[in-house]
Write a structure and sequence with these properties.
Helices cover 29% and strands 37% of the residues. With 231 residues, it is of the alpha+beta class. Strand 4 (77-78) and strand 5 (86-91) form a beta hairpin. Helix 2 (46-57) runs antiparallel to helix 3 (110-125).
């Protein structure tokens, strides 16, 4: 499923603006303006980086993804050899972008990996507005409507077993911790398969440039976002 969204060239992983934008919109249903081809603040979606890691290294029972930098389209990424429990993905510029810690058994079954990627990015793509807006409203804060910035910080997942027939992701708890103009969001979820809970995880994000909540402004941001989704 990822063959159209990144290329490996001379041991360097490359993602074009078009590939990143297509993944965001076509797979993740993520219409954040920073994933637009013509965005001055363009970056590769964190969900695409997550998916690329699973595609290259397989799915392990315990995984922690820590995002440390926003990837633009002109930085070839270096994926290290598949060795050890900790892997660091850097750019050709020497900057660290993603750190992976893993444990337990690992599967490289493409069908299983694709199932998990699809349900996770579908959940992730629903964060705005369906989850984040009610959270911000409850804390009486909002992102800057002129320069909305939501940054992927980390994601953890654990699985009791790697044989998955028809997995589903169920959101559980959502929290927003506000500290001045920054906020930390934690979105918890469980994995279910054939009526059985088989694992779970947490997606963590950082909101910057927070300001007092304005219902009218927030509604305008949401409507503009929904119009982008609808084309």
């Amino acid at each position: 499923m990822l063959e159209n969204y990144y290329k490996i060239d001379q041991n360097r992983v490359r993602v074009t603006r078009q590939q990143a934008s297509d993944f965001a919109k076509q797979v993740a249903n993520d219409f954040n303006p920073i994933h637009d081809v013509d965005s001055r603040r363009f970056c590769v979606p964190g969900d695409l980086l997550f998916s690329m890691v699973l595609d290259q290294y397989g799915l392990s029972q315990e995984m922690l993804f820590t995002f440390s930098g926003m990837v633009n389209d002109n930085v070839p990424l270096i994926f290290p050899a598949d060795e050890g429990d900790e892997l660091v993905i850097t750019g050709e510029n020497g900057k660290e972008y993603l750190r992976l810690a893993r444990n337990g058994q690992t599967t490289r079954d493409k069908s299983t990996i694709e199932k998990l990627i699809r349900i996770y990015v579908a959940f992730s793509g629903q964060a705005f507005p369906h989850i984040l807006v009610p959270l911000m409203e409850s804390e009486r804060v909002m992102i800057n409507p002129e320069r909305p910035l939501v940054i992927y910080e980390s994601m953890t997942l654990h699985l009791d077993r790697l044989k998955l027939e028809a997995p589903r992701l169920q959101p559980t708890e959502q929290t927003l911790e506000v500290n001045g103009k920054r906020g930390k969001v934690a979105l918890s979820f469980t994995f279910e398969d054939q009526g059985e809970t088989v694992g779970g995880g947490v997606k963590r994000m950082v909101l910057s440039g927070l300001r007092p909540y304005d219902a009218q402004q927030m509604e305008q941001v949401v409507q503009e976002f929904l119009q982008r989704q609808q084309g």
